[in-house]
Amino acid sequence: MQNLENYVIVIEALTPTMVAASTLIPIKVKTDSKFYQFASWFETAYSSVNPDTGRKRKGNFKKFLIEEIETILLTGKSPELMKAAEEFKKSSVLSPELQSAKHNLNETDFAKLVELMEKAKGGV
Description:
Strand content: 15-25%
Largest sheet: 2 strands, antiparallel
Low-confidence stretches: none
Helix content: 40-55%
Number of domains: 2
Oligomer: single chain
Structural class: alpha+beta
Mean pLDDT: 83
Order of helices and strands: EEHEEHHHH
Radius of gyration: 19 Å
């Protein structure tokens, strides 16, 4: 049996009266595909914390994807999508433990962790 994850994408369309309307476009994605891995990574990498409540929010992958496809259709380019894809490729080089550390630590602490790991690996 195939592992599939459903993604429902809401796309705004203009009706004849020029009022924006939305429609659902469901797509099925295999859970072992790069697309699914990118979507999961994006939700984690672009998460945010509400400063008032401390609640963590996932990155809005669906909104990002729709905006980037629109940009490609209008301009033929998508620098933000390419930037995110490069970040995804770089992060997939890291072990799951380091990916978790990168997400949970601030930039300075993560850099210190990497420095200590390199020191330990080199035997210095």
